[in-house]
Amino acid sequence: MIRVAFTLGLLASGCAVEEVESGSGSGSGSGSGFESVRPIVMVAGMLEDEATVAPLTDALHEKGFDVTIFVPPDSGLGDIRGYAKQLGEVVEAVRRKTHAPQVDLIGHSEGGVTARRYVKDQLEGAPVHTVISLGSPQQGTDVGSLSTLLRAAGLETWMPGLEQLIAGSTFLKELNAGDATPGDVRYVTIGTTEDIVTQPVAHAGIPGAENVIVQDACPGRMVGHFGLFEDAWVLQVITSVLAGEAPSGDCNALPVGSQI
């Protein structure tokens, strides 16, 4: 095993680096020994940290993937445009370390929006092969869902990141204007009807992307917003996409992600 994953603090004022266990870039590691062609950058969402994303990143590590975690500063409550720029610095650091021409991005919740913003901002093309968005409000979510998240976090005031994720926000209108899937990049979204944050579930999709809804493939599978990190079927879909295949998984796969 090689320890290569970074957690970033405020890049603008210097990197705060924390290492977490990762598989090697050559695909070696425990588990199935999946041959990882490209390194992965996992983009955490609002109010998320390394522990939040660990069920998914650990599972990918076991399959031999090289995964770097980007946790945005300020609990992800700041301007997503700034996080997209910081993500770009992470991508370049990973490419220098691994000598990979491209990376794959996996973003959960706000993280999927951040990943897409980063790709769209690269006028000469981002060094990204695939973007996988998990439960991300790509078309925004309703105010009530974000208010619930705000109260659950013990926050009392609206922050830029929250405002940007409301359906109809200026930020999302700009993001979705023109080509919604720019560049020579594969875009895949995974949403769930049980998501209490990204509502309605259709707002997790991107026009022109491969948009997958858990319950369309596996009716009755009760996977929530954070359950996407834990669900075995979702993991199978992710690895099939990273292998260049159509999104697919076994609906009998266990464990089923939590309903939260």
What does this protein look like?
By secondary structure, the chain is α/β, with parallel strands linked by helices. The protein has a single domain (2-242), classed as Rossmann fold, CATH 3.40.50.1820. It has helices at residues 50-62, 80-98, 110-121, 143-152, 160-164, 170-176, 214-217, 232-242; strands at 2-5, 20-22, 40-43, 67-70, 103-108, 128-134, 186-191, 210-213. It has a six-stranded parallel beta sheet with strand order 4-3-5-6-7-8, sandwiched between helices. The protein has a two-stranded antiparallel sheet with strand order 1-2. Strand 5, helix 3 and strand 6 (128-134) form a beta-alpha-beta unit. Helix 2 crosses helix 3 (110-121). The longest helix is centred in the middle third of the chain and has 19 residues, at 80-98. It is globular. The two termini are 32 Å apart.
CATH superfamily descriptor? Alpha/Beta hydrolase fold, catalytic domain
One letter per element, helices H and strands E, the order comes to EEEHEHEHEHHHEEHH
Mean pLDDT: 86
Q: Would you give the CATH topology?
A: Rossmann fold
Number of structurally distinct domains: 1
Helical fraction equals: 25-40%
Largest sheet: 6 strands, parallel
The low-confidence runs, each spanning 5 or more residues with pLDDT under 50, are 1-33
Alpha-beta content class = alpha/beta
> Any idea what the radius of gyration is?
17 Å
First-residue to last-residue Cα separation: 32 Å
The CATH class label is: Alpha Beta
Strand line-up across the major sheet:
4-3-5-6-7-8
CATH architecture call: 3-Layer(aba) Sandwich
Number of DSSP helices?
8
Strand content: 5-15%
Tell me the overall shape.
globular
Tell me the total number of β-strands. Answer: 8
